[in-house]
Amino acid sequence: MRTSLKASLAAAVAVGALVALGPAIGQDRPESILPPGFGEPTPAPAPRPTPPAGTQPPRPTGPTQPSAPQPAPSPAQPGAMIQPLPATTPGDAPLVPPVATPAPVDPAVLAQYEMPASARRSLATVGPVTASEGGLDTDAFGDADGQYVETLMRRLSAPLPSRWMSILLRRALVSHVDTPSRTNGADFAAERAWLLLRMGESVAARAVAQNVDTDNYTPKLYQVAMNTALATGDPAGLCPLVTGAMRYAPARGWTMAQAMCAGLSGNPAQASPLIATAKRRNVASGVDLLLAQKVVGAGAQGRQAVTIEWDGVDRLTAWRFGLAMATGVTVPDELYGTAGPQVKYWQALSPSVALGDRLAPAEAAAGQGVLSSAALVDLYAAAATDDDTQSGATATANDLQTAYADRNPDSRLTALRQLWGGANARPSYARLVLTARAAARMNPALAKAEADHLVASMLSAGLDRTAARWLGSVPAGSDAWAMIMLSDPDAYRRLSYSDLASYTGGEGDSALKQRMLFAGLAGLGRLNQGDIERAAQSLGVRIGADNAWTRALDSAARDGQAGTVVLLAAVGMQAGSWKDIPPEALYRIVGALRGVGLDGEARMIAAEAIARA
Questions:
Q1: 13-17, 27-31, 73-77 — which is least confidently predicted?
Q2: Rounded distance between C-alpha atoms, residue 198 and residue 193, angstroms
Q3: Of 153 and 446, the one with more pLDDT
Q4: Strand, helix or coil at 145?
């Protein structure tokens, strides 16, 4: 993805090779190591032969530089040599005119050379992921009011309880979309990046912020951009923004960024007075100041070591997290408990964290949708070869290898059970994500007893067609059957009321799961209208409830505003867990997503309700 905020640090290292040539044996004097012609007296030029009278000197055959016309030989001296430059007399024009003082350059003209108009990005359409790359269409927000859309994002509580809703929301926020009316494109990008940060999507948030040219930054985007740089552990990302931020959005963090950027650019002599001034003015103190000094020392010629002690630090902030990640300082586990869960997801995405320390937050991030199933498997595979990884993580990696690659189906199934916590345990959703593609390799005829977990595992990674092949092997009315009925992309018939009544619910809250199955099937249009009304009455699901949220959602779906529908759907899923999401809300969400062409995500969200309720 193309970004406009590049780290402006370059450490140039010149590498040379010294070749020593020793004198040859038997020489009277050392052989010179200079190229031929260097260090030797310049021989006098040989006299040119005078051409015969009446002839012209030969013309050069190759291209030559134009020269001033030479005077013809004097009649008194036929054949005289042409002088290379004519002698000048007082009053003649000088051969080299004096250089005039350059006129001041217009900053606007200079900006055109630094970034020509063809390279500049418009604020009318902002976002790093185009529709061809998996994003939403550019008109995803249609004619929605921009201030209304920004308010939805600003007030949205994140993270969400649904993995698939979080994945869809991230997709909408990073899309290359038109800026709605009554809002600035940079401010719109800032709201999107800020919501992504609260979701734990630090890398995606930085990509959105960097999709705006720096000369278009607003005070709001400056503030959010600082947080994206800290969440990704990249203080160098602040350096291209310091000058503009100090002018338009001054804050204590930017004052410290001046010193850090001076140190990172190899100017410790400039950084030290800035740090001293910040300390004297109480801009920062304690661990915050020490972390900034450690960043300065990490630059070229820093020549200083700073020890970080967390004693007395009572909470973890974005500043402390980001600078600790940048300098390789380990944050105590108890401090993560003072911050929101999204900070754990930032940790999972940070390459500076040791592999063994990333595994637990990575599992949490995968369950939330921040990491994919494949990324989590790759992380365990890398940890298995790391000498510093603890034995428990190594055992998990070995079980994972068996579950994916063993030739014996029974061994693979045993390894899956071990990864899920035992034969009779209900696995965590993160472990279902971890084993998704291993579950897809199982034979339905040989693993009927684990069908509910296997189907849920496959659908956690979106393997809907693979899961649908289990339909003939799972008993009707089971959790696996219910999830396949919701997720099958090729469902050719509608279910009846009796089909719905056959589902009694499996593990977990069976009554809630019955209502969730009904809400999902009704929202997907997989029940007849008469059966919908009958089931809604018998199960007590008020699908006809009318309020401001349902009216806004229905209106956005009618207008084809996929981006607005996704935001409103996320608003309807603000809860601590799936058990707190009303089935009526699921019905409305699934129907609205299906109405704007997001059928795949609608099916995955409905199936996830059965797996996690």
A1: 13-17
A2: 9
A3: 153
A4: strand
Q: Please report where in the chains the tokens 């040119």 appear, as a residue.
A: 48
- CA distance linking residue 550 with residue 548, whole number of Å: 6
Is residue 81 classed as helix, strand or coil in its secondary structure? coil
What is the structure's pLDDT at 60?
Answer: 44
For 287-336, the three-class secondary structure string (H helix, E strand, C coil) is HHHHHHHHHHHHCCCCCCCCCCCCCCCCCCCHHHHHHHHHHCCCCCHHHH
Pick from 477, 520, 524: nearest CA to 501: 477
**Cα–Cα distance for residue pair 372/464, rounded to 1 Å:** 16
Distance CA 520, CA 607 (A): 8
CA pseudo-torsion sign 467, 460, 352, 192: positive
DSSP structural state of residue 57? P
Q: Is the pLDDT of residue 144 over 50?
A: yes
C-alpha to C-alpha distances, 565 to 136, 325, 516, 560, nearest whole angstrom:
12, 36, 20, 8
What pLDDT does residue 231 have?
97
The identity of residue 611, as a single letter, is A
Structure tokens at 186: 């940079």
Q: Would you state the torsion angle of the CA atoms of residues 195, 201, 203, 204, taken in this order, to the nearest 10 degrees?
A: -60
Q: Which amino acid is at 597?
A: G
Residue 63 CA: distances (Å) to CA of 66, 84, 112, 230, 251: 9, 18, 35, 59, 62
* Residues 6+ away with beta carbon under 8 Å from 97: none
Exposed / middle / buried, residue 201 (Cβ in 10 Å: 0-12, 13-18, 19+): buried
The region, left, alpha or beta by phi > 0 then psi within -120 to 50, assigned to residue 605 is alpha
Distance CA 379, CA 370 (A): 14
Q: Which two tokens stand for residue 498?
A: 């009796």
CA angle 327, 332, 334 (to 5 degrees): 145
Helix (H, G, I), strand (E, B) or coil at 177: strand
User: How far apart (Å, rounded) are the C-alpha atoms in residues 2 and 171?
Assistant: 17
- Per-residue DSSP letters for 487-539? H-TT--SPBPHHHHHT----SS-HHHHHHHHHHHHHHTT-B-HHHHHHHHHHH
Question: How far is it, in rounded angstroms, from Cα 12 to Cα 265?
Answer: 11
In degrees rounded to 5, what are phi and psi of residue 267? Answer: -120, 65
> How many other CB atoms sit within 10 Å of the CB of residue 110?
9
| pLDDT digits 0-9 by tens, 399-430 | 999 999 999 999 999 999 999 998 788 999 99
Answer for the pair 208, 189: CB distance below 8 angstroms, yes or no: yes
Tell the burial category of 266 from Cβ atoms under 10 Å away from its Cβ (0-12, 13-18, 19+): middle
Through-space distance between the first and last CA atoms of the chain, rounded to whole angstroms = 37
Name residue 217's amino acid: Y
Is omega for the bond preceding 57 within 30 degrees of 0, making it cis? no
The pLDDT score that the predictor gives to residue 420 is 96
Query: CA 220 to CA 212: how far, in whole Å?
Result: 13
403, 438 contact by CB (below 8 A): yes
Backbone phi, then psi, for 72, in 5-degree steps? -70, 155
Q: What are phi and psi of 77, to 5 degrees?
A: -130, 70
